[in-house]
Amino acid sequence: MSDTDPDQNCTAANLLPSTGRSLPIAMLRGREAIMAPYRQLLAKIGVTEQQWRVMRVLDERGMMDPKEIAEAACLLNPSLTRIMQLLEKKGLIARKGHPEDRRRVQVRITQAGRDMLVAAQPESLVIAEQLRERVGQEKLDALLDLLNELCETTPE
After folding, report:
1. What sign results for the dihedral spanned by CA atoms 88, 48, 120, 117?
2. What angle do CA 41, 45, 46 make, to 5 degrees?
3. 74 dihedral zone (left: phi>0; alpha: psi -120 to 50; beta)
4. CA distance 35 to 119
5. Nearest 10 degrees: CA dihedral of 24, 27, 31, 33?
6. Per-residue pLDDT tens for 31-80?
7. For a disulfide at 139, which of 60, 88, 135, 150, Cβ 3.0-4.6 Å?
C-alpha cells in the first residue's frame, strides 16, 4: 500500500460505529436542529445562548453563587465570568458581595432580565410547540428522561 491509498485507514474506521449511529455526532446534530430556531429568537433580543441559559437559571433558582450558576447552565467558570460581565453591563443581572464571605459574590437576575425572559416567552413557547408537534410529547419526554439519566449516571 502506498501512503496515498485511501483504503489504508479503513480498518480502524470500520471498528467505529458509522457517523449516522455515533451518539456524540447524533447529539450534536440534534442540538443544532433544536437550537436553530432558538438562536433566531436570541439574536432578535440581543443575547447569546450562554447568556440566555444564565438568565434562565437565575430566574428559576433565585440568587446563586457563580460556581452554582456555571454548573446549572453548563458553562466553564472563565466563560461565566465574561458572560456575567456582559449581562451586568446590560443591566440584566446584578452581583453583590456575599454577606458572610467577602471573597464570594452572589448573582441575581434583575427586573430588566426578567422582563426580557417574559417578552421572549411567547415565541419560545411557539418553538417548543413546533418541536412537540414534530416528534410528539411521548418521544420528547422519553428523550429528556434518557438525557437526564445519562447526566446522573457517572462512569466508574
Report:
1. negative
2. 110
3. left
4. 19
5. 120
6. 999 999 999 999 999 999 999 999 999 999 999 999 999 999 999 999 99
7. 135
CB atoms within 10 A of CB 110: 17
pTM of structure:
0.82
Q: Which alpha helices (H) appear in 62-136, and where do they start and end?
A: 66-72, 77-89, 111-135
Q: What is the pLDDT of residues 12-36, one digit of tens each?
A: 557 888 888 899 999 999 999 999 9
Question: How many CA atoms are closer than 13 Å to the CA of 103, on its beta-carbon side?
Answer: 1
How many alpha carbons lie under 13 Å from residue 73 in its C-beta half-sphere?
29
**Residue 28 and residue 129: Cα distance in Å, rounded?**
21
> Residue 59 in contact with residue 114, Cβ under 8 Å?
yes
Cα 96 → chain centroid = 25
Q: Could you tell me which residues are beta bridge partners of residue 93?
A: 109
